[in-house]
Write a structure and sequence with these properties.
Length: 211
């Protein structure tokens, strides 16, 4: 007699849900039964890592980073150390890979403007842009509100070059960036701002394009 097997997509979903729950439970996010505020506790010895002062506590990147919410404002803590990295004064904190979290950068939003910080709390790009990203660890990009020009910076926030475009992505190798214009056309620059190919490509990195 044949038994019905569980379809692979369902097994994958169950595995991901279990993994996510296990990962979350390792943080020891707890709620004070009286104040209903949340904090972070070491699950091994019960040591308080983050105080019970917040409406929301969200772990990120293993146990490395934790975003907290107090009222409508957000801050960032170190998950292991409990050290306050970014004060609870931002409208949003972006730890997505698109902004550059895998490279050690956190995006912030305050009063509708964006800036970029390192995970040690050092501000690299001021909060004055409507687009920010770490393309590489040593190449950052930002765009002023209403502007059509991208500004590129080194890891310290020092300006390197400017180039027309809406967004920028890693290029075809670690020394190039792909710049996308508002009309979706694109071209490449190296980290010094020098042209790599003619500027009439209509396709992206890794794709065959007619010049």
């Amino acid at each position: 007699m044949m038994s019905k097997s569980i379809p692979c997509p369902i097994l994958l979903l169950l595995f991901l849900l279990f993994s996510a729950h296990t990962l979350f439970s390792q943080y020891g996010v707890e709620t004070n039964p009286i104040t209903k505020k949340k904090g972070l506790v070491d699950p091994e010895d019960g040591r308080k890592i983050i105080p019970f002062e917040f409406e929301d506590v969200q772990p990120w990147s293993g146990d490395t980073l934790v975003t907290v919410t107090k009222g409508k404002l957000k801050g960032l803590y170190g998950g292991k150390s409990g050290q306050l990295i970014l004060p609870v004064s931002f409208d949003e904190i972006d730890l997505s890979w698109q902004t550059g979290s895998k490279l050690g950068y956190a995006g912030v939003k305050k009063d509708g403007k964006l800036g970029l910080f390192l995970f040690n709390g050092k501000q690299v790009l001021p909060i004055q842009y409507d687009y920010v990203r770490a393309v590489f660890a040593d190449l950052l990009v930002a765009r002023e509100p209403g502007d059509t020009v991208l500004q590129f910076f080194d890891a310290s926030g020092k300006p390197i070059f400017k180039s027309a475009g809406s967004t920028a992505w890693p290029g075809f190798d670690n020394s190039t960036t792909e710049i996308i214009r508002a009309d979706k056309s694109r071209y490449f620059r190296n980290k010094k701002g020098q042209a790599v190919f003619p500027e009439n490509s209509t396709k992206g990195a890794g794709q065959t394009a007619k010049w």
